[in-house]
DNA sequence: TCATCTCACTTGAACCTTCACGTGGCGCCG
DNA sequence: CGGCGCCACGTGAAGGTTCAAGTGAGATGA
């Protein structure tokens, strides 16, 4: 697919060194569209079927696999790739829905633990099947095992660069 | 090559059929993290160096390659993967900054054309080098040509499923 | 020719994220 | 033991996106 179309007029004269080769550009634009629309699609599915956003689902899922259904806010923030502030607001909302609760770490009051409540676990379990099926249909079962593995590797490779200091 | 890593402990007991196989899950989580953090990184770079968001940059870039620097709002929305409403708000802001203007299509007043202004083109040209360099460092030059091509293909394949009706 | 329908936008409110700052617990150094 | 600084979080305002209506231009049909 895709690509490698020569534009009827070649406007990419002076853009050439400022920009990307046609094939590179096409691939990059596909990635951009994926980054924009895949989260949107997942959010829409979860919102429709479970009234959860993807980050909320991820948070519940992370907690459900943690010992004692408990995680520090900062760890949960890291695991869900969200800022502490965003997480704080989000957990407040989950708390008001009865899915989690917070308490200061008994051992060190500077930390706050987020704790999954039974209602939250129930919510997660009721949301999981449709969500997993959706992820399978869009991604996991849509790519060969090998390609999925490579996709994950590429993602890690890019993430590494994101985390590494400016240069 | 390469190996198939077994996780040291297998926690996926009863989750197994509700969820994904360990390798699948790992790949999927990598993709999720990529979808979350790559846009964030790009936005941060553009914001810092040019006070533009990624969508704004994309919109200017699309317009700059369109004939007469002109595109219908609906076409621009499609090309930037954003809703018409989002685009409308966004273009209003770009308009107030003097980068674009809007006018009703003379041939058919139902359509609205977004038109890139010289100041917008100048903005784009001044933002492009750093942005392109950043994209190269994170993605394009970080993957082999073959892997980049395949990444683009995988993205297209997933996008196709997103666009196809529920089943 | 005029009511009605359709379709591309536009708009304003609600919601969420971001940003900058504020707060409280605990270690540390005197 | 007492002030100081650091660090994990919390909070409120600002800004952007989403959602649900609203608007206006052209097609359609009587």
Verbal overview:
The structure is a homodimer of 167-residue chains. By secondary structure, chain A is mainly α. Chain A has one domain (29-163): Arc Repressor Mutant, subunit A (Orthogonal Bundle). Helices cover 62% and strands 8% of the residues of chain A. A three-stranded antiparallel sheet of chain A has the order 1-3-2. In chain A, a hairpin with a 7-residue loop joins strand 2 (100-104) and strand 3 (112-116). Chain A is globular. Chains A and B meet through helix 1, helix 2, helix 5 and helix 6 of A and helix 1, helix 2, helix 5 and helix 6 of B. Chain A binds a DNA duplex (30 and 30 nucleotides) through residues 53, 72-74, 82-90, 92-93, 104, 108-112.
Biggest sheet strand order of chain A reads 1-3-2
Mean of the pLDDT scores of chain A?
A: 91
Largest interface: A-B, 57 and 56 residues
The count of DSSP E runs of length 2 or more, i.e. the number of strands of chain A, is 3
């Amino acid at each position: 697919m895709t690509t490698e179309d020569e534009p009827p007029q070649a406007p990419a004269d002076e853009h050439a060194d400022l920009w990307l080769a046609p094939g590179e550009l096409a691939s990059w634009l596909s990635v951009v569209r994926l980054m924009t629309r895949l989260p949107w699609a997942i959010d829409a599915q979860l919102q429709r079927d479970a009234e959860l956003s993807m980050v909320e689902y991820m948070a519940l899922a992370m907690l459900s696999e943690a010992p004692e259904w408990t995680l520090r806010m900062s760890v949960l923030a890291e695991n869900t790739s969200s800022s502490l502030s965003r997480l704080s607001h989000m957990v407040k909302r989950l708390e008001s829905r009865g899915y989690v609760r917070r308490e200061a770490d008994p051992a060190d009051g500077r930390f706050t633990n987020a704790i999954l409540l039974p209602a939250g676990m129930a919510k997660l379990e009721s949301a999981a099947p449709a969500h997993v099926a959706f992820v399978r249909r869009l991604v996991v079962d849509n790519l060969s095992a090998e390609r999925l593995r490579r996709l994950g590797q590429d993602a890690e490779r890019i993430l590494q660069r994101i985390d590494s200091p400016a240069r």
